[in-house]
């Protein structure tokens, strides 16, 4: 049995998919989500095999869902979208399927059959294609000013400008924000790509700082610098990354 969820902010669109899926004996519709935040939590909780994912949603769109969950952790995805030439071209380039609203029963079955083949090949091309898809879709688009992070059993939005510093923890990064911290499934380089380079700088192979929260920068041994943050945290600016601070050193 293929366990699926439907994510769309339009009630009629969810109803249409619900009706079509009810005719498929090998599909179990586990949950309907009305926005991207609900989708992230449902994917994290249910670990479905297949997601029908609307591209255009307020707050957190379909690409934001993939970015938050992580391309490598996403189930098979069938994107559902109104006409968006940029997105459709990206799907086609990366051999990912989509349903263009309004879609008919035949087009739905074609896409669903392709999804069945994907699910029969764990770790296959759809998951591998999601990362380059995100890269292409985000090209030229302004950086978001928020990031979605898990806090307990729920997810919350954190303003990027409020992040004081970021440290690497194996396959995660920890965001230090106003007296608390959040663990995010992301690489340090991946996190850096989401941040404004005018404000955030890498200081070490395992740390990034927000310049607005740096209090002092003093020479230390072996070409390193001692960095004191406004909250009293002491960090090290490695000599390898001194060129990030050339205008101050």
Explain what you see:
With 249 residues, the chain is an alpha/beta fold. It folds into 2 domains: 137 residues, Rossmann fold (3-Layer(aba) Sandwich), CATH 3.40.50; 100 residues, Beta Barrel (OB fold (Dihydrolipoamide Acetyltransferase, E2P)). 30% of the residues lie in helices and 33% in strands. It contains 7 helices and 15 strands. The strands form 4 sheets. The chain has a 5-stranded parallel β-sheet with strand order 2-1-3-4-5, with helices on both faces. α2 runs parallel beside α3. The termini are far apart. The mean pLDDT is 88.
Question: Could you outline the blueprint of secondary structure elements for this entry?
Answer:
Elements: E1 2-7, H1 11-22, E2 27-33, H2 36-46, E3 50-54, H3 62-69, E4 76-81, H4 85-93, E5 98-100, H5 105-119, H6 125-138, E6 146-151, E7 154-159, E8 163-169, E9 172-177, E10 180-184, H7 188-192, E11 200-204, E12 207-210, E13 214-219, E14 225-229, E15 234-237
Parallel strand pairs: 1-2, 1-3, 3-4, 4-5
Antiparallel strand pairs: 6-7, 8-9, 8-12, 9-10, 11-12, 13-14, 14-15
Helix pairs in contact: 2-3
- Run of helices and strands: EHEHEHEHEHHEEEEEHEEEEE
Given as residue ranges, the uncertain stretches (5+ residues, pLDDT < 50) are none
Number of helices: 7
Q: What is the β-strand count?
A: 15
Shape: elongated
Counted up, domains total: 2
Sum up the structure in keywords:
7 helices; 249 residues; alpha/beta; elongated; 5-stranded parallel sheet; OB fold (Dihydrolipoamide Acetyltransferase, E2P); Rossmann fold
């Amino acid at each position: 049995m293929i366990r699926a969820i439907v994510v769309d902010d339009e009630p009629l669109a969810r109803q249409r998919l619900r009706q079509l899926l009810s005719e498929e004996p090998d599909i179990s519709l586990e949950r309907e989500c009305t926005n991207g935040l609900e989708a992230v939590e449902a994917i994290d909780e249910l670990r479905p095999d297949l997601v029908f994912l609307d591209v255009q949603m307020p707050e957190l769109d379909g690409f934001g869902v993939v970015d938050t969950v992580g391309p490598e952790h996403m189930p098979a995805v069938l994107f559902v979208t109104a006409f968006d030439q940029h997105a459709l071209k990206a799907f086609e380039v990366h051999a990912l399927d989509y349903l263009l609203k309004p879609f008919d029963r035949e087009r739905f079955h074609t896409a669903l059959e392709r999804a069945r083949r994907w699910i029969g090949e764990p770790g296959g091309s759809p998951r591998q294609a999601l990362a380059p898809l995100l890269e292409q879709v985000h090209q030229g688009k302004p950086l978001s000013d928020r990031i979605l992070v898990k806090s307990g059993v729920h997810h919350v939005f954190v303003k990027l400008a409020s992040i004081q510093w970021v440290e690497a923890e194996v396959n995660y990064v920890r965001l230090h924000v106003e007296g608390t911290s959040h663990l995010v499934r992301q690489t340090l380089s991946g996190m850096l790509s989401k941040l404004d380079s005018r404000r955030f700088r890498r200081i070490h192979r395992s740390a990034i700082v927000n310049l607005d929260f740096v209090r002092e920068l003093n020479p230390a041994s072996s070409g390193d610098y001692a960095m004191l943050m406004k909250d009293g945290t002491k960090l090290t600016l490695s000599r390898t990354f001194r060129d990030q601070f050339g205008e101050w050193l």
